[in-house]
Amino acid sequence: MWNGIWLQSEGINFKLILRLFKIPFIIFVHNTRFNYMQIKHFFLYVLFSASMYTGYAQATKINNDPAALFKQAKEYFQNNEYSLAYPVFKNLQNPQYGATLNDATIREEIKFYTIACELYLKNAAAASQAAEFISLETTTPLVQMMSFYLAEYLFEQKNYTDALTYYQKAGIDNLSNSQISTLKFHMAYAYFTLQKFNDAKPLFDVIRQIKTDPNYIDANYYYGFICFYEKNYAAALQAFTIIEKDKTYKNIVPFYIAEIYYFQGNYDKALLYAEAALLAGNQYYELPLKQLIGHLYFDKKDYARAKSYLEAYINATPTPNREDVYELAYCYYATGNYQQSITGFKELGGKQDSLAQNSMYLLADAYLKTGQKANARNAFLFCATNNANPTQKQVSIFNYAKLSYELGYFDIAQRELENFINNYPSSPYIQEAKEIQVSVLANTSNYKDALMLFESLPSQSENVKKVYPRILYGRAVELLNDQRVNEANALLVRLLQVPYNESQLPYAYFWLGEIAYRNGNVDAAIQYDNAYLKNPVVLGEVNPINAHYNLGYALLKKEMYSEALSNFQQVAKTISFNPTPVQLDAYIRSGDCYFMNRNYKPALTIYDKVIDMNAKGADYALYQKAIIAGAYNKNSEKINLLQSLIKQYPNSEFASEANFEIANTYMAAENFNAAIPYLQNILKNNDAAALWPKVYLKLGVCTFNLNQNNQSLQNFTQLVSHYPNSPESDEAIEYIRNIFLENHQPDAFVAFMKENGKPVSYSEEDSLTFRSAQLAYDAANFNAAQKGYANYLAKFPDGKYNIEANYFMAEIYLMNKDPQNAFTYYAAVAAKAPNIYAERSVLQCARIAYFDKKDYTTAETYYEQLKQIATQQENKLEAMRGLLRCQYKLQQWKDAVANAQDILNEKGAAEDDRMMANMIVAKNFQSDSALTNAANAYQQVIKLGKSEYSAEAQYRIAQILYLQNQLPAAEKAAFEVIKKYGSYEYWVTDSYLLLGDIYFKENDLFNAEATYKSVAENATIEALKKEAADKLAMVQAAKNKQPKTN
């Protein structure tokens, strides 16, 4: 045993012997050099010494001779028996030998050998002693040899930098050939380890030239490696070939040799050699060899074989490089294993190099081959944004647009196709691109852009011309729903003139008739409605019922009552329980037609049925029945019926008319006292303010005929002072004059007239000035009329014809398309309501404020006024519609709800009015977080037709479903916006953002990124573009947190 424990051989106590000879018990193990045989030799030596000590006293004396011991130790050292030499050298340094070994050279040698032994025996303190020896001693051979021994020690300690320093100090003059060989190899290895290949290479080259050198094999290896590193493949191959059969390197160098063949372009030889190496087994570079073989088969287009090697390599490599992943993915692709190729290609996106672009290109094709068009589209998008390969970029842009069309991303398809046509006019895909673009616009309701594109084409093929009528009609309907009536009319008129319009003609006739009636062009309305009815079609509002209804009203305005009657009867010859508003109104209008033709009996039948059903309009029917009774001179019955109307329908708009008609009936019978209470009833109703001038006149007449002149004068004074410009005021003047004359007060009459702004001379000049302007207006000399009215208003700002002058000035400005100035004069008329021009003036003020000034607050005020004073049903309806739109623009949802309900209950409300009304109801629900009710209301908007309101409604439904976490339903609803509402860019773009939100919430980062990226790069609405960019950054940040391929 070691470390001072008994080590026995043949029963001898070696420890005791060592003590007897005063030899220190130190045993060093120097790597593999100190082996059992050395131990055995050492103890044989000790045993021999002991025998000599016990048997021969004289011999012991000799062996105690320092010179002899020094000689013996040197022999041990020269025989590499350092463990035997060291204790002797160490003992010789004792002072007891100082007298005998007093030669300085010998003492220096003993010191040299002692340190050298310690270096060989790995004594840690020996390095510093050796360095000190080198720096202090002067004997060059010993210093050089010590430098060599210290370098060797440092080399084994892997301190290559310091080892090189001492190797250089050692030189070779005092070294044996073996030591020189060792020095050169170890220096070369140190340089190699420190990556100083230029210094290492010549040293290795020298050694590798000597086949007998013990480092011959290793030198060839390192020399070959350096040449390989330097791409000096011929030299590297020569060196590696020498050692390829060596047991140490036979499992290492085959990889380098195969690589060299590959780099030299000798691919077949590289393949054969690499496969043979793998077959031999136990290759250190087994995985790189498989990688190389995979590359070689890949280059030979033998993808099936390449796949197996690349697959083995990548499966065993934690972070394979992108090129290897690409080649394996391509092998899957080329051998028809598209699903696995998809997995590989997907890992290679996100960069802007050719590898990423080609991967996305092939990924897209793999997706197409597996029927995954949506994912293929996104892959083409990534490829299209990469500029590495212009041809692939061009093809990808085209396919991205094409797939966008096929998948329903119509707005993107249109935009991308337009960009493609502009950027690649000579592309082989240009014709197909144009054909798809036409299909996108014609078949996806994007009529606005479709029309612009068609009209920009320098020439049109017959196929494009066949689509043109449908584009014209679709865009016209959109404009109608957006209340741009005149623009819609122009497109419909154009539609009548283009070829291939047969399918759209009936629809065009219907809407042209509707527009003509709205614009007051009754003759044109009759013409168009009749044209539609010759070949009627049905689609939503376009149907024979509505056409007959509109035609009936147009004929009614033309006083063609029999013709109107036949059309109203087409809508509703009779009615049953719960008729539609249109049916009920048409039925009542049928009664009016009979009435106007003085065919009272069937009129009464109709009115009675409406009264008996207590349907909406029963108050009107009762009023008309009373008028018929009057026509039959049944005045008592007439009065009774009118009194029933007042009692049953006290809030009816006809209640005041009924009071007025009763008063007229009593006055006709000269029963003035009986008439007065009914006239006074009207004055109590503020909604009947339009009748007040007539009421004051009739009250004055009644009291005048009752000889109640003072009361009569009071009534006339009310009339003249409050309504000085009304016709009734002029009519009252004669009565006033008579009252004053009867009282012999002519001066008072003049004073009265002056006091009430009606001096005689003033009135006469007033009339003449106004009349001059009016004559010019009647003669259509509008410039002269405008100057005349301006002159009249300047001279008579409060004149008798102030209202008329302001009104006709407004009309001229409006005719000259100057709505801003027209507004000023209409407003002056409106401020003096009621008057005969007030209703139209208030209406025009509201329209101008809304459409031209965009002043929705002012428009709201005028629509509110119009609603109060309107006597015509269509104006009252427009007031309600306008008020609703103002409140919509001002987002006064709660205030607008009541008005919206009025619209929804109104029998004559158009579908666009109902759309907005339902939108308001929906937005009110949504603002109150009543999401289910809001969604139901939005659904009502969609049912009513296609417009910007329905586009927003569809989006809001998708938004609500998203908020309710119904993500598949939300995605489907968002796609509905994109597919059906292409003309409304804002809502389509916002829907894409919502789709991105849905994908992100579903953790589908691939499609979320593609969607946000598309919007961020292509949106034209800056706010949405910025929102998309922010969300894209968010997705990319989330994506970067996921594990990635190196």
From TrEMBL:
Keywords: TPR repeat. The keyword Ligase does not apply. It comes from the Bacteria. InterPro entries: TPR-like_helical_dom_sf, TPR_rpt. SMART domains: TPR (SM00028). TPR repeats lie at residues 584-617, 693-726. This is Tetratricopeptide repeat protein. It comes from Hydrotalea sandarakina.
